[in-house]
Design a protein that fits this description.
It is a single chain. Strand 1 and strand 2 form a beta hairpin. It is built from 12 helices and 14 strands. The chain is of the alpha/beta class. It is globular. Strands 4-5-6-10-11-12-13-14 form an 8-stranded mixed barrel, surrounded by 5 helices. The chain has a 3-stranded antiparallel beta sheet with strand order 1-2-3, with helices on one face. Strands 7-8-9 form a 3-stranded antiparallel beta sheet. Helix 7 packs parallel to helix 8.
Length: about 400
């Protein structure tokens, strides 16, 4: 791949916030990638920069990228990592480096006459078996920093399993989403039911357990108990304040929060997964809950692991998690995200390739999920710009 030119454009994500789109030109054509910056970010994630700063940074490094022939994505990404020279992309910005990485992946795929997922698989996952139809993690109710309501827990998720047809499963997800919306509007919430940053309903509730009850009842009404289960993204770092977890008007220590999750699991048998149940540095909390629930439930690291191969290996060795979120944004290149997937698979950790808040229409994460044979793909609510990712699932798998 010989790059002729790179141009950045400022676009606006689903929240209306400024974000970055890179346009990379080679002899094969022009390839773009748009990168959501996200709202809830772990402290160990790759740093982001403003659009104006990204433009300045690109001008400083563009000469070194357009004068070199890159035979692979890893070679390109390694060059960008070398130029940045930091562990957290604080010089160039992880949103800039990822935009360049994804656009380059698309250019290299075109050169090889392959789909994006086929190229990524060939370069990073050649020995990985294919055929897994990933679970869909779809955000139905928003709380935390993603919504202006009284929920501390950030996401209430419907987990959809399909063995034959994504189009049929997604249709049922859309029907359930509408059913939940109608339920909220027809009860004491009234007609004014807003949505949060990821498309989930964002009204206030009696407490942080009630959304699970409402979603569980909706699943029963739709007679989807065999295909749909429930998950939560607690994003507990966001409601940890001065050593306490503040939830439902209470201040809980780690052991008390562990007890609360056990009560949630007991009261809602369809609840099978919780992401970031504790703050990113509360390893004792993760370990205690994992010891309590074993392999019966999926305990997923996100802020804890930030798509870092090193942190995934460390968390696995300590027995903290059995699932992990893979967000390329958190490390800043596709190469590093693929190394994180490899680390998780080597340790028997379930991989969930994820979008992030402030989503754009870019569907690259679906190609990454297919390339690495991911166990799950976390997309958001089945509506607006996120529906393009659902449609790409149908195209690639059905």
């Amino acid at each position: 791949m010989k790059i002729k030119d790179i141009v950045l454009r400022e676009i606006f994500d689903s929240r209306g916030d400024s974000t970055i789109e890179a346009e990379l030109t080679t002899s094969e054509g022009t390839f773009t990638a748009s990168i959501p910056a996200g709202k809830s970010r772990g402290s160990r994630e790759a740093k982001i920069v403003s659009f104006d700063q990204a433009v300045k940074n690109l001008q400083e490094i563009k000469g070194g990228l357009t004068e070199t022939d890159f035979p692979s994505l890893e070679r390109f990404d390694r060059r960008v990592i070398e130029i940045d020279g930091t562990g957290d992309k604080s010089n160039l910005g992880g949103n800039l480096t990822l935009a360049l990485s994804v656009a380059s992946a698309r250019a290299l795929a075109r050169e090889s006459n392959l789909e994006d997922w086929e190229y990524i698989k060939k370069e990073f996952f050649l020995k990985e078996k294919t055929g897994t139809r990933p679970l869909i993690f779809s955000n139905f109710i928003n709380g935390g920093v993603h919504a202006q309501n009284n929920l501390s827990i950030q996401e209430y998720i419907v987990i959809a399993e399909t063995s034959k047809s994504y189009s049929s499963t997604i249709r049922k997800l859309v029907d359930l989403y509408r059913d939940i919306g109608d339920t909220l509007r027809s009860t004491n919430w009234g007609s004014n039911v807003s949505v949060g940053d990821e498309g989930g309903f964002a009204t206030s509730f009696a407490d942080n357990f009630e959304p699970l009850t409402i979603l569980g009842r909706g699943i029963k009404r739709q007679k989807m108990e065999k295909e749909f289960r429930l998950g939560m993204d607690a994003a507990a770092s966001e409601f940890m304040k001065e050593g306490f977890y503040e939830i439902d008007g209470k201040k809980l220590k780690s052991k008390e929060l562990t007890k609360m999750y056990k009560e949630y699991f007991s009261a809602s048998p369809s609840l099978v997964s919780v992401e970031d149940p504790f703050a990113e540095d509360d390893t004792e909390g993760f370990k205690a809950l994992r010891d309590e629930v074993g392999e019966d439930k999926l305990l997923v690291g996100d802020d804890l692991t930030v798509t870092s191969a090193e942190l995934i290996e460390k968390s696995s060795k300590a027995g903290l998690i059995n699932g992990v979120i893979i967000k390329p944004n958190q490390v800043g290149t596709i190469t590093e995200a693929c190394l994180a997937v490899r680390a998780a698979k080597e340790k028997g950790i379930k991989t969930i390739v994820s979008h992030r808040s402030g989503e754009t229409e870019d569907n690259f994460i679906i190609h990454l999920a297919k390339a690495c044979n991911a166990d799950g793909v976390k997309i958001g609510a089945p509506q607006k710009e996120r529906i393009l990712k659902f449609n790409e699932l149908i195209r690639l798998y059905d």
